[in-house]
Specification:
Largest sheet: 9 strands, mixed
Organism: Erinaceus europaeus
GO molecular function: deoxyribonuclease II activity
Pfam family, one: DNase_II
Radius of gyration: 20 Å
Function: Hydrolyzes DNA under acidic conditions. Does not require divalent cations for activity. Participates in the degradation of nuclear DNA during lens cell differentiation.
Subcellular location: Lysosome
Length: 357
């Protein structure tokens, strides 16, 4: 039996047994285009030191098959980057014009727009799925990505500051829970395609896509999600009616851990570290890289937090919101995990943090 005939036979068997070829399974992808259960990235800021020649497109990368950060050889604006490889599935789905794949792209900073929309959540992300599985990409990059008809690109406005993101592969049975979380986060959807085959289960995503949501939205909701390979995640979602600091009032107390938070620390717009509740929240002030290299939180548009060393529960959360008085009036959320490789990777980035007064 020839190798070519064997491959064709296996593909046909997969189609008969599962209704879709194995090769077309939608998932997060690494830089080789291989499926991974999850990945996270840290896009580094553009350095002021001309000798470093960092152009603001370099990034650190970690996925479900590795143990620690690696500095990618790719640049974020390349189609060979982890985002380029993962979003390639979006462009293939768009080009096929089929009715079995759906996508939703959202960002409060729409590509090509000058201003940011405060009517919607302070949320940025993308979902692509079919009735078998898909992925949810949550990130902090304004004006990203372009619409599917434009193909892959990375905005010049995303080079100056640090940015973070996480992609998780989910089976389709998780999308009802994600549907409800998105309702609360109220994302600004600027491109979407949802075939009618998803109408019955995913009510709110379609309403958000058409701008017809009328249901009264809860102030907050926490849900448990499970990746395609069984990794547990918690997702915190708050609406604009929940006016507390999501980190101090909710996440730290629910996770039962002191949190070190790294969010965009715009001068005179940050909240101070908070030790008034049983579990404290501290602002990270500087991020360390290899050797003596580091950068300030003022250069970082990332949104993440990690349990302080010595805390029993080791959590890492990546998401949408800054610790700022203005962000209390915005909706958004965080996805959290106790994966030890993610925890050690982010914990290792903390150079120093602000104690409480």
């Amino acid at each position: 039996m020839s190798a070519r005939f064997l491959r064709a036979t296996l593909a046909l068997l997969a189609l008969n047994c599962f209704g879709t070829p194995v090769a077309t399974a939608i998932s997060c992808r690494n830089e080789e285009g291989e499926a991974v259960d999850w990945f996270t990235f840290y896009k580094l800021p553009k350095r002021q030191d001309k000798e470093k020649r960092d152009i603001g497109l370099e990034y650190l990368y970690l996925d479900s098959t590795t143990r620690r950060w690696k500095r990618s050889k790719q640049l974020m604006n390349s189609t060979q980057s982890v985002l380029g490889k993962t979003l390639e599935q979006l462009y293939e789905a768009y080009a096929s014009k089929g009715n079995n794949t759906a996508y939703v792209i959202y960002n409060d900073g729409v590509p090509g727009a000058v201003n940011y929309s405060r009517k919607y959540g302070h949320t940025k992300g993308l979902l692509l799925w079919n009735r078998v599985q898909g992925f949810w990409l949550i990130h902090s990059i304004p004006r990203f990505p372009p619409t599917p008809e434009e193909g892959y690109g990375y905005p010049p406005t995303g080079t100056r500051n640090g940015q973070t993101g996480i992609c998780v592969t989910f089976k389709y049975n998780q999308y009802e829970a994600i549907d409800s979380q998105l309702l609360i986060c109220n994302p600004n959807i600027y491109s979407c395609f949802i075939p009618t085959t998803f109408n019955r289960e995913l009510i709110y995503i379609r309403q958000l896509c058409t701008g017809s949501t009328s249901r009264e939205i809860p102030g907050q909701h926490l849900t448990t999600l499970q990746s395609a390979q069984g990794q547990k995640f918690l997702h915190f979602a708050k609406s604009d009616s929940y006016l507390e600091d999501i980190f101090a009032a909710w996440m730290a107390q629910r996770l039962k851990t002191h949190l070190l938070t790294e969010t965009w620390q715009r001068k005179r717009q940050e909240l101070p570290s908070n030790c008034s509740l049983p579990y404290h929240v501290y602002n990270v002030k500087a991020i360390k890289l290899s050797g003596r290299s580091y950068f300030s939180s003022y250069q970082d548009h990332a949104k993440w937090c990690v349990s302080r060393k010595g805390t029993k529960n080791h959590w890492t959360c990546i998401g949408d919101l800054n610790r700022s008085p203005h962000q209390a009036f915005r909706s958004g959320g965080f996805i959290c995990t106790q994966n030890q490789h993610i925890y050690q990777a982010f914990q290792g980035l903390v150079l120093y943090y602000e104690n409480c007064d």
